[in-house]
Structures are given as structure tokens and as C-alpha cells.
Amino acid sequence: MSHTSPVNDPALSRALAEFDQADLVIYAGPSLADSPLTAPAAHLILPPVRDGDLTALLTRTPPPTTVLMIDGYFGAGQAVSLTEIQETLGRGVRLYGCSSMGALRAVEARPWGMIGLGVIFTDYLTGRRTADENVALLHDDHYRSLTAPTVNVDLLCTLLAAEGVSAGHCEEFRRRARELYFGDRSYSALRQLARTCFASGSSLAPGTLELVLHRLTPPQLAHWDAKRHDAESAIRDVVLGLAPTSAPTELIPVPECIGAMLAEA
Asked: Mind listing the pLDDT tens digit for each residue in 13-62?
């Protein structure tokens, strides 16, 4: 899983400045918090999508040409409905999804033409991930993450292993972090867990614990935030015309677990 940020592209900043909400609307929150793209894309960004938002969007004159759904609210009565998505697609709006609620809805709405983007979407599409908890997190009033979703813990462990940290220790840390309730998986909890899993020992290289604790500092988050990477990549691809303009004709069947999960959302 790549963690290279796509934001350092001058062409992207120039293109964003030329867009308005008649061209593109982005529903985003925690996945873009503190991203360098929040400034140049601010005029296109609405809060995380919830039930009724797409229907309201269609009352605009004209409605936007394209919508990118990144973050959204979960839970009965809050989650954006498949009925709204069908209606939006039926009105000719091109609808993309990635990162969080956008990735989940894009899996189920592909038969109607919703286009999924990014690694997280692909993971759900192929059944590698099967629980909405994998992208769930708590955030503050400015959408800054207070807890780490499972997708981020997985990417952190991948990065640590690539940096030479013992695979066995990384897997133990991943397993124990995944066992935490998503609302309890704070960064302080992960740092405490790291002190247990990466304590100095004969099987660990010197400085391993310090490396892991460094990765767990807030400034390092952008390097292992899978949701942010997918969101930034999706914005770049949509704005620069690199994203597909239609759902693939040969569709992978929607995993039964995803259909059941979203039916309860």
C-alpha cells in the first residue's frame, strides 16, 4: 500500500482554482483534516454526507456535474441512502466514492454506476475487508481524528515492516490494536501498546521502540493515514481527469457481507 502523497502537484492546485460547485462537490471531513488540499479545495468541500444531502444537492440549478463522496455519517437515520444514490446517478451526476463511507457505498452502488476509487474501496470490493469498523473513527469539532481506524493501523504496520521492524512484532501489535474497540483506539493507547509490543529485547534491533513511537506522533500521521491518502489521490484523479468516467462493465459481485452491513447502516 503506497503512502506517497499526491498533493505536491502544481497542476492540481491550478485546476482546483478553476472548479466551482457546479463542476464538483466533495463530501469530506476526517479524511482530509489537516491535508494540504483543504485550502485549495475548500470552496468545493461540504461536511461529511448524511441522509438527505444528495437529494438537497439535486435541487440546485444546475446540480453539480460530479460528486466525490469521501466521508459520511454512519448509523440508522444518518447514513446516506442507496435510494438517494440511485436518484443522483439517474439525474446524470457522476458519483465517485472512496476512503470511508464513500468506499462502502461505492461497493454496493456499482451496478447503478457509482465509481469507486482507491485502495480501501478495492479492499472492500474484493472482500479483504468486511467490517465498517475498519474505517470508523472518532473526531473533534474540526474533524481531526481522535482515534485510529483499522485501515491506518494496518498501513502503519506495513510501513514499520518495510523499515525493518520484526514482522512477528508488527503482527502482534496489529492484532492487539485491532482488538481494541474503535472508540478506545486513541493515539495514546497505541503508544502504550507499542511500549508493550516493542519493548527492548534480543529479537528487536536497537531503537525499534523509538522508531515506532516516532511514527505514532501527530506530525507523522500523514505518512500512515490510509483514508487521507485515498482521499487526496481521488481528488487529484477526479480533478485532473485521471479517474475512470464510468463503472467497469465486468463487475465483481458485491460481497454478501458488504450488502448486509450497508443494509443495516
From this structure: 999 999 999 999 999 999 999 899 999 999 999 999 999 999 999 999 99
Residue located via cell numbers 479492499:
123
- State percent of the chain over pLDDT 70: 90
d(CA 197, CA 173): 6
Residue 152: name the closest of 221, 57, 247 by CA. Answer: 221
In the DSSP assignment, the letter for residue 72 is B
Q: What DSSP string runs through 124-149?
A: HHTTS---GGGT---B-TT--BSB--
- Which of 162, 179, 160, 178 lies closest to 170, judged by CA? 160
Query: Are the C-beta atoms of 257 and 58 separated by less than 8 Å?
Result: no
What lies within 8 Å, CB to CB, of 199 at 6+ separation is 209
Q: Exposed e or buried b for every residue in 202-225, given b needs 16+ CB within 10 A?
A: eebeeebbebbeebbeeeebbebb
Residue 3, pLDDT above cutoff 50: no
Q: Which residues contact 175 (CB under 8 A, 6 or more apart)?
A: none
pLDDT at 1: 43
Residue 261 has pLDDT above 70, yes or no: no
Cα distance between residue 115 and residue 104, in whole Å: 11
Strand ranges (E), the chain: 24-27, 45-46, 66-69, 94-97, 115-116
pTM: 0.89
**Residues near 59 by beta carbon (within 8 Å), at least 6 away in sequence:** none
